[in-house]
Automatic annotation (TrEMBL):
Domain Glycoside hydrolase family: 17-472
Residues at the catalytic site: H399, D450, E459
InterPro entries hit by this protein: 6-hairpin_glycosidase_sf, 6hp_glycosidase-like_sf, Glyco_hydro_9, Glyco_hydro_9_Asp/Glu_AS, Glyco_hydro_9_His_AS
PANTHER family linked to this entry: ENDO-1,4-BETA-GLUCANASE
EC number(s) reported in the record: 3.2.1.4
GO molecular function, one term: cellulase activity
Protein name as annotated: Endoglucanase
Annotated keywords: Carbohydrate metabolism, Cellulose degradation, Glycosidase, Hydrolase, Polysaccharide degradation
Superkingdom as given in the UniProt entry: Eukaryota
Organism expressing this protein natively: Beta vulgaris subsp. vulgaris (Beet)
Group of enzyme by EC: hydrolase
SUPFAM superfamilies xref list: Six-hairpin glycosidases
GO BP terms, alphabetized: cellulose catabolic process
Length: 478
């Protein structure tokens, strides 16, 4: 049924999805914080932030820098981890030789998230002072800005953060089970503990940590979506009926009726469309008539489909999906991921989606997702790949400290906080190629300035890449 999904793309213009898959995973090695392993392939990056957590007396070394800065923001990091795990959970047969690298990328995050949840009654939300960090342009290896850890607690809760970490740990346990059953069981056990903490002590981390998180990753959608999202993932990992019951019993807490106001939203902050697609696949709401998850997943599709009368998104003349807010490629990759997952599911159950008088077959959903992937990889008006290091033409001046400053191998002397300013303003290409990074992307007119200062368009982020990993794995073999 899905054989026709890729048929609308001419073979002559087919990108090398296998190469793009390899590079999309390699990118995460460039974002690593902590003590780098001997297997590190992006060798211009070195050890960094080796004393993280010392103020709390807890080892918080490891994890990922979220984008072009040197702070560890755990809310988007956890979402990145969930999406990497979902990519493998749904598309594992298509990863081939890249599967071990994908699992390494996931475990690099989960090792750190276990540390962040190791003290009962506390969940670490962030390591590093975002304001001090953003006032500097320096390599992570040279950081001299405060590495302050910020945590939520029973008294000062942060349910969206804690629940997203629980989702990440549960999703990761599914894909790591076959290679390390003991470790996967530990992840799932911790996911249940952290979910219980998030649910028992409900509140937004905006209220407890707003002065430090809200200029960067403030939560705008509340925390009920993360609680339901986490419960769905723990159910998928454990099959325990408590968690499916939790989803159904708490559904009314989302925007009425059943997240009707946010069905089209999905990303590091808002989980609604992801919940609907995931729970539809899990099937535990099939006894409900009508099934609100299927209904809202259909509405999500109709909000994205270009020919739909209820389309909520915009498209550039070249065909790139656009939503409001910066770093637009995150919308292109996350929404395309959901389209493909839902296409495969609706193909299996032979479900046809109707958007007014428009019929959306599964093949059309997959074709639209593939169009977004192809645009990112260079099939666009500028003939430019928005994946660094892929193709003949790609961004050279990305907004990324480590990439834009000379590596320690070339410049072993320390570069202080303001010492990198001249590199930021230089018109020269970045000296270190952050292979696989997807930048924020062009404007809605398909134009791209390739400027470090234009960070909404030139900055990469882990949560842009994570869903693309699954898309590339699928299209490499279809």
């Amino acid at each position: 049924m899905l054989a026709e999904m890729a048929a609308n793309s001419e073979a002559a213009s087919r990108p090398n999805y296998g190469d793009a898959l390899s590079k999309s995973i390699l990118f995460f090695e460039g974002q690593r914080s902590g003590k780098l392993p001997p297997s590190q392939r992006m060798t211009w990056r070195k050890d960094s932030a080796l004393r993280d957590g010392i103020q709390m007396g807890v080892d918080l070394v490891g994890g990922y820098y979220d984008a072009g800065d040197n702070v560890k923001f755990n809310f988007p990091m956890a979402f990145t981890t969930t999406m990497l795990a979902w990519s493998v959970a749904d598309f594992k047969p298509f990863f081939g030789s890249e599967l071990p690298h994908a699992l390494d990328a996931i475990q690099w995050a989960t090792d750190y998230l276990l540390k962040c949840t190791s003290v009962p009654g506390f969940v670490v939300a962030q390591v590093g002072d975002g304001f001090a960090d953003h006032n500097c342009w320096e390599r992570p290896e040279d950081m001299d800005t405060p590495r302050t850890p910020f945590a939520v607690s029973r008294k000062y809760p942060g349910s969206e953060l804690s629940a997203e970490i629980a989702a990440a740990l549960a999703a990761s346990s599914i894909v790591l089970r076959s290679s390390n059953r003991t470790y996967a069981a530990r992840l799932l056990s911790r996911a249940k503990t952290v979910f219980n903490f998030a649910n028992t002590y409900q509140g937004s981390y905006n209220d407890s940590l707003g002065p430090w998180v809200c200029s960067f990753y403030c939560s705008f959608s509340g925390y009920q979506d993360e609680l339901i999202w986490a419960a769905a993932w723990i159910f998928r990992a454990s099959k325990l009926p408590y968690y499916s019951s939790y989803v159904l019993d708490n559904l009314y807490k989302l925007d009425p009726p059943y997240n009707g106001g946010s069905f089209a939203e999905f990303g590091w902050d808002t989980k609604h469309a992801g919940i609907n697609v995931l729970v539809s696949k899990l099937g535990f709401a099939n006894h409900l008539q009508p099934n609100p998850f299927l209904t809202n997943a259909d509405k999500f599709v109709c909000s994205v489909l270009p020919e739909s009368p209820t389309k909520f998104v915009s498209y550039s003349p070249g065909g790139l999906l656009f939503k409001d807010g910066g770093s637009n490629m995150q919308h292109s990759t996350t929404l395309s991921f959901l389209l493909l997952v839902y296409a495969r599911y609706t193909s299996t159950i032979k479900r046809t989606i109707r958007c007014g008088n428009v019929i959306a077959k599964p093949s059309r959903l997959a074709q639209l997702a593939k169009r977004q992937v192809d645009y990112i990889l260079g099939d666009n008006p500028l003939n430019m790949s928005y994946m660094v290091g892929f193709g003949r033409k790609y961004p050279q001046r990305i907004h990324h400290r480590a990439s834009s400053l000379p590596s320690i191998d070339v410049h072993p002397e320390n570069i202080e906080c303001q010492g990198g300013t001249s590199y930021f303003f230089s018109s020269n290409p970045n000296p270190n190629v952050l292979v696989g990074a997807i930048v924020g992307g062009p404007g809605i007119n398909d134009k791209y300035s390739d400027s470090r200062a234009d960070f909404p368009h030139s900055e990469p982020a882990t949560y842009i890449n994570a869903p693309l990993v699954g898309l590339l794995a699928f299209y490499n073999t279809h």
